[in-house]
Amino acid sequence: MGLKIKLIAFALGLVFFCVVLRNVKRNTFRPSYAVLWLGMSLFLLSIAVLEPLYKWIATSVIGILDARHIIYIALISFLLVYVFFLTSMVTRLSNQVLQLISAVAVLEAKLADQTNSQRKPANATTVDPPKGTSP
Amino acid sequence: MKTLVSVIAYNEEPNIRATIEDLRTHNCGFDLVVIDNGSHDATTTICRDLGVRVVSHCINTGGSMGTVTSYFNFAYDHGYDCLCQFDGDGQHLATELPAIIAPVQRGEADYVIGSRFLAKEGFQSTALRRIGISSFSWIVSNIVGQKVTDVTSGFRAYSRKVIEFFGAYYRYEVHDTSQLLLLSYFSGARITEVPIRMRQRAHGKSEYGLRDALTFPLKGIVSITGALLQRQQIQVKRR
C-alpha cells in the first residue's frame, strides 16, 4: 500500500472517529451504536497503521495472497451484519409504534366516551352511541 | 353475550354512512365501533356525526390488518365476549351478521370466517385473487386439519378466548389473515366457516394495488412460517 493511500485512509479514519465522538457528545447515538461506530473508525485507522499485521493475517492465517481482499471481506461482512441488525431494529420499532398508535386510539375513544357521559345531563340533545341490547 | 361489531375504515367517506345505517337497521343486539385507520377524508367526522364510537389511528398503520391490534385492545378493555370484524367499504351485508356471530354465541366456535365460496353466491372477487385465496386456504386447511375455503375473508367473528389472546398476550403486529387464523388456532381456538354473500364496493377502489398482489404470496408464506415457528411458544403459554 502506497504512502499516499495510507495517509488518505488515516485521514478518513480520523475524520470518521471525530464525527462519531461529536455524535456521542450530542447524544445522537445510543451507547451501543457509538461503540460499534467507534470500533469501525478505529478499524479504518488501523488499515493505514497496521498494514503488516493485515498482510500477515491474509497470507499466513487465512491464505489469501492480497491483503486488500481481507479488508473488503471484513467491511462487506460488517455492513451485511449491520443492515441485518438495523432491519430487526426497524421491525421492532414499527411494532412498538403500532402498539402505541393503537393504545392512543383506544384511550382517545375511552376519553371521548367519558366526556360524552359527563356532558349528557347538561345537554339532553346529545346523541348516544348505539348500544345494543345484549341477548 | 356482550357483542361488538368493529367496522374497519380507511378513506371510506362515500361508503361509511350507508354501512353504518345498514348495521343500525339490522342491529341484532350488538355495540358498534369504527376503527379508522388514519383516514384523510371525512370518515371519522361522518361517524361521529352519526353518534358512533370511533377509535381513530393518528397514522395509517397499513391495510386492514393494521387495525386488528386496535379492535382486539378495544374489545378486551371493554370486556366484550364476542367481536366481529366488518368492512367499512360496504362489501359486507349486515343481514349476514347473525349467521357469523351465532357459532360464537352458541359456544361452538372461537373463530368464525364468513366464506364467500361455500354458497358461491354474491361477489366472488377477481380470478387472480381467487387463485391466491384458494392457495392459502389449502395451506391453512392442511395445517389446521379442517377445510377452510376463504382464509382472507374480512368478515370474521371471534370469541372471548381469541379476544383475550390478542388483547392481553400476543402483543406483536399481525401481518396476514392466515397468520391471524393460525395463531388463534395454536392458542386453542376452534375454527369454523359459515356461508355469506358479499357485494362489490359501491364507491372508490380497494387500497390494495399491484404491488400488494405481487408481494402477497411471499409475505403470506413468511407469515405462515412465522406462526408455525411460534406454535410451541403459544401452546406453552396457553397451558
Radius of gyration of chain B: 17 Å
How helical, in percent, are the residues of chain B? Answer: 40-55%
Rounded mean pLDDT score of chain B: 88
Query: Could you give the distance between the termini of chain A?
Result: 84 Å
How much beta of chain B, percentage-wise? Answer: 15-25%
Report the biggest beta sheet of chain B as strand number plus sense, adding barrel if it closes.
7 strands, mixed
Determine the N-to-C terminus distance of chain B.
26 Å
Largest interface: A-B, 25 and 33 residues
What integer value in Å does the Rg of chain A equal?
29 Å
- The CATH architecture classification of chain B is Alpha-Beta Complex
Residue runs with pLDDT of under 50 for 5 or more positions of chain B: none
Poorly predicted residue ranges of chain A: 123-135
Quick recap of the structure?
Chain A has 135 residues and is mainly α.
What does this structure look like?
The complex is a heterodimer of chains A (135) and B (239). With 135 residues, chain A is mainly α. Chain A has a domain at 3-87. Chain A is built from four helices and no strands. Chain A is elongated, with a radius of gyration of 29 Å. The N and C termini of chain A lie far apart (84 Å). Residues 123-135 of chain A have low confidence and may be disordered. Chain B has 239 residues and is an alpha/beta fold. Chain B has one domain (3-238): Spore Coat Polysaccharide Biosynthesis Protein SpsA, Chain A, CATH 3.90.550. Chain B has eight helices and seven strands. Chain B has a seven-stranded mixed sheet, with helices on both faces. In chain B, strand 1 (3-9), helix 1 and strand 2 (31-36) form a beta-alpha-beta unit. The model of chain B has no long low-confidence stretch (mean pLDDT 88). The chains are: A mainly alpha (135), B alpha/beta (239). The A-B interface holds A 94-95, 97-99, 101-106, 108-110, 112-113, 127-135 and B 1-3, 24, 27-33, 35, 50-59, 61, 66, 69-70, 73-74, 77, 105, 171-173.
